[in-house]
Amino acid sequence: MTFSDYTLFRILGIMEKLAQYDMPTFNSH
Questions:
Q1: CB burial readout 1-29, b (16+ within 10 A) else e
Q2: Model pTM?
Q3: How far apart are the two ends of the chain, measured CA to CA in Å?
Q4: 2: phi then psi, degrees, rounded to nearest 5
Q5: Which DSSP state fits 2?
Q6: Which pLDDT tens digit goes with each residue over 1-29?
Q7: What's the Rg (C-alpha) of the chain?
């Protein structure tokens, strides 16, 4: 896996975690 692929994988992982944290707040409101 190249460095660019690893960076993209990390970004997608971070975005997924942020989405998981944001969803409950939207549902609660």
A1: eeeeeeeeeeeeeeeeeeeeeeeeeeeee
A2: 0.51
A3: 41
A4: -80, 170
A5: -
A6: 688 999 999 999 998 888 887 666 655 55
A7: 13
